Amino acid sequence: MQTVPAQGQTPAAKEPAAPALQAVAVEDTLPPLRYQILKDGAVAGPDAVFSPGDSLALKVEAARQGRILVLRRTEDGNLRLLFPDQGQDNRVGPGGGLLVPIRAREEPGEDTLVLVLAPEGAAEAARPELRAPARAGALRDRRAAPPLPQEGVQIKLTIR
After folding, report:
1. Partners of 25 in beta bridges
2. Count of the separate structural domains present in the chain
3. 3-state helix, strand, coil in the chain (%, to 5)
4. Is 11 contained in some domain?
5. Does 129 reside within a domain?
6. With bands split at pLDDT 50, 70 and 90, how would you rate the model's confidence at 86?
7. CB-side exposure of 31: number of CA atoms within 13 Å?
8. First and final CA of the chain: distance in angstroms?
9. How far apart are CA 80 and CA 104, in angstroms?
10. Is 102 exposed, middle or buried (0-12, 13-18, 19+ CB in 10 A)?
11. Residue 15 placed within a domain
12. Closest CA to 85 of 100, 66, 75, 103
């Protein structure tokens, strides 16, 4: 039913409809995994060059609960688990961070680390073949090691 203004009154201007609100979860707007490389407590820039064997740390933050795994890509392309070691807490979540100590490889060249945010409960998923020294083809055969649902990023370190 339409309302008609009384004689002598002007019709009220229609207010524009308010835009519909969208519910956006904050964690959906953040990258799932953020990190900084620290050397001697200071943030190393993206073009930083490290010396063989340098003691470094990864400062890691995540947009959701999970477990952090740090792996190193070996010369033959396999992955070797660096973190966590037995007894190390690798849980991370929103509002908190994790400081992961790492050591640059001993040989000059490119050092590739893989930083993974695995779902909560995936601590058991750090399969034994990741902890052992890499065996040729051990992690390339997907039948032997099914992929985990996870998010990750490769970190390239230049060692000179």
Report:
1. none
2. 1
3. 10, 40, 55
4. no
5. yes
6. confident
7. 8
8. 80
9. 14
10. buried
11. no
12. 100
- Note down the domain range covering 68: 28-159
Q: What is the pLDDT of residues 112-160, one digit of tens each?
A: 999 999 887 655 544 444 444 444 434 443 334 444 445 788 999 999 9
Picking from 67, 149, 61, the residue whose alpha carbon sits closest to that of residue 99 is 61
What tens digit of pLDDT does each residue of 40-80 get?
Answer: 999 998 899 999 999 999 999 998 899 999 999 998 989 99
Q: What is the pLDDT of residue 59?
A: 95
Residue that the structure tokens 């953020």 belong to: 34
The residue type of 63 is: A
Note whether residue 65 is domain-resident: yes
Report d(CA 100, CA 69) in Å as an integer: 10
- Which pLDDT belongs to residue 23? 42
Q: Output the domain CATH number for residue 72.
A: 2.60.40
